[in-house]
C-alpha cells in the first residue's frame, strides 16, 4: 500500500454543495478557513479516501473529481472506513481527531446527490475536529495514530494485598474488558493494581491514573458497609460528576432476586476526562455489574468528549 498522503484539499462556501480543489487549506481551531463546515462542532473537517472515490467511479462509470463528495481532504493509503472514533491524523503541524464515521444521506434534497446521482460520504467518509492548527496541501504525508484506550483496575483488599487471599475480581474485570475491546477491534492497555483498603493510597492512584490519561478506572472491593470499606467515600469526594443511574439500575435489577445486592454502595462518575466505576469485590457481582456497565461505556466516553452520537 502507498504511504498515506493528501491527494487534494477542497473547500465550498455552502453546506450540501460540491467542493472545489485549492492549492492549500488553512486549518484553524474552528476547521478549514473559508469552508462552510467550519464551526464550533465535532464535524469540522471531512476526509474521504481516494480508494473509495475510485471504487465509486467504477460503479458510476465516470470520473469523479476531487471534492465532488464534499470532502475537505482527499486521502490515499488509509482505509478510512476501518478507522475508529478518537483515532488521529497528523498532517504536518496539523492534528485531527476522528469524531464520526459516515453521516445521514439527504438523498434528492442534497445538491451532491442531485449532481452525482449518489454519495459515498454517508458510508465511507469520516469527520474530524481540530486538535492542532496548521496548513495542509496536496502531497503532505499523513501519520495515522490509532486510539489506544487506557484502563486501570484497582483492587482494594487487605487480605489479598497481604497474600492471604487471591485477587479474582480484578482479573475478572480485565477478562471482560479484553473481550469488550477485542470485539470492537480497538486497541487497549489494561493495568491491574492491588492495594489494601487504604483511602490515601486509593486517592493517590486515582490522581496518578487520571493524569496518565486513563479513559476508564474500575475499582473492585470496599463498596459494602464494613469498617474498612472506604472506596465509595474516597471516590465520591473526587468525582466531578456522578452518574447514579447505572448503579441504581444494577442494584434494583439484581436486588429483586437477591436483596443483599441492595447493600452495595457503588458509585460511578467522572474525574476530568476519565470514567470511574466502583464495583463490589466478588467475582459474581463484578460479572453482573460489568454486563450492564459495558452497554454504556462507549456512549459515556462520547458524551464526555463532546461527540454528538444521538
How many distinct beta strands? Answer: 17
Largest sheet: 8 strands, mixed
Treating each run of at least 4 consecutive H or I residues as one helix, how many helices? 10
The low-pLDDT segments are none
Shape: elongated
Keywords, separated by commas or semicolons:
310 residues, alpha+beta, 8-stranded mixed sheet, 6-stranded mixed sheet, 10 helices, 29% helix, elongated
Description:
- By secondary structure, this protein is of the alpha+beta class.
- The protein is 29% helix and 27% strand.
- It contains ten helices and 17 strands.
- It has helices at 50-60, 111-116, 121-124, 158-161, 169-183, 199-211, 231-236, 244-255, 283-293, 297-304; strands spanning 5-11, 20-22, 25-28, 31-32, 45-49, 73-76, 88-91, 94-101, 126-132, 134-136, 143-145, 148-156, 187-195, 216-220, 241-242, 268-271, 274-279.
- The strands form three sheets. It has an eight-stranded mixed beta sheet with strand order 2-1-6-5-9-8-7-11.
How would you concisely characterize the structure shown here?
This protein is an alpha+beta fold and 310 residues long. The chain has helices spanning 50-60, 111-116, 121-124, 158-161, 169-183, 199-211, 231-236, 244-255, 283-293, 297-304, and strands spanning 5-11, 20-22, 25-28, 31-32, 45-49, 73-76, 88-91, 94-101, 126-132, 134-136, 143-145, 148-156, 187-195, 216-220, 241-242, 268-271, 274-279.
List the helices and strands and how they pair.
Blueprint: E1 5-11, E2 20-22, E3 25-28, E4 31-32, E5 45-49, H1 50-60, E6 73-76, E7 88-91, E8 94-101, H2 111-116, H3 121-124, E9 126-132, E10 134-136, E11 143-145, E12 148-156, H4 158-161, H5 169-183, E13 187-195, H6 199-211, E14 216-220, H7 231-236, E15 241-242, H8 244-255, E16 268-271, E17 274-279, H9 283-293, H10 297-304
Helix pairs in contact: 5-9, 8-9
